[in-house]
Amino acid sequence: MTATATSSYLLDDDQVEFFDRNGYLILRNRIPAGLVADLRRATDQWLEQGRLGRGPAGQEGDFKFADRDGHEVMFRVDYVHGKGSAVSLQLLGSPHVLGIAESLAGPNFVPTYESLVFKAEGDGAPIEWHQDAVHPRNHRIFNIDIYLDDSLAGHGALRVVPGSQRAEADICTLADRSGWDVPGAIEVDMHPGDVLVHDTMIVHGSPATRGEALRRTLYYEFRPAEQILGEGPWDADWVDARLRLVPLGLRAYAERADAAEPYRWRIDDQLRPVPAGDPEAELRIVHEKHTPGTFCSAGSV
Description:
By secondary structure, the protein is of the alpha+beta class. It has one domain (2-282): Jelly Rolls (Sandwich), CATH 2.60.120.620. Helix content is 28%, strand content 22%. The protein is built from nine helices and twelve strands. The chain has helices spanning 13-22, 33-52, 87-92, 95-105, 171-178, 225-231, 236-243, 245-254, 279-282; strands at 2-4, 24-28, 63-68, 71-78, 109-119, 127-130, 142-147, 159-160, 186-187, 195-199, 204-206, 215-224. Strands 1-2-10-7-12-5-4-3 form an eight-stranded mixed beta sheet. Strand 1, helix 1 and strand 2 (24-28) form a beta-alpha-beta unit. The chain starts with a strand and ends in a 19-residue tail after the last helix. The mean pLDDT is 93. This is Ectoine hydroxylase-related dioxygenase (Phytanoyl-CoA dioxygenase family).
């Protein structure tokens, strides 16, 4: 199912039902062109910081590299806020993102992760089938994937298995039996400004490619505060610290010349955070632990 962003920025009942049934939802042209252009410029800077080792002091580990045939290739940047550009906060505070978050997590949504994942030009390593985070499914946990470049069917686009989010999958058996041709799997054709919302338990991955252009996707994960406080893996202090990102994002977005109507944050009063007084420190709230995912190898999200 595809959809066009509406003036309210909230998902409608049909979109929410589609997401719950299939584990994903595509929103075409959800992010305005000006914001996409600024994000592309910022991510170019992050990639240069990582490759040259010139990232913010103490954040060197946020730039992730993998060995590709004996060469170190960067593929990920974690904790993107505070990397020299306000645009990641502007995106977080935009109604285009927070309208989705409220629609699926309720008004007490918590921004839990923010990362840039990319395939560098000519680096087409696969992302094997996996589930991001497995949980009891008493609440929705989801990623909002903001595409900054084309990701086309037949060229290593993301593949998802609709409906696979309902239970923990046996990834090894699935991959051994079907490879990349899992029954029911679809390729997700995406363009700059499109958003893919995916349940953290949907089985997904992307095959290897060769000689393709740079492909960047920003991932913002959200969970209801009620889910974290009831099931972990984090505590109330961590939730409070993470919630402080929201007013920072709202203020950053409001400063954009092309800002749309502001998002009205309706968080419960008992959860509304009080600023700690150091905005820079509030931009990078790290994870001491993670909700385990499923892979055909040891690992977790």
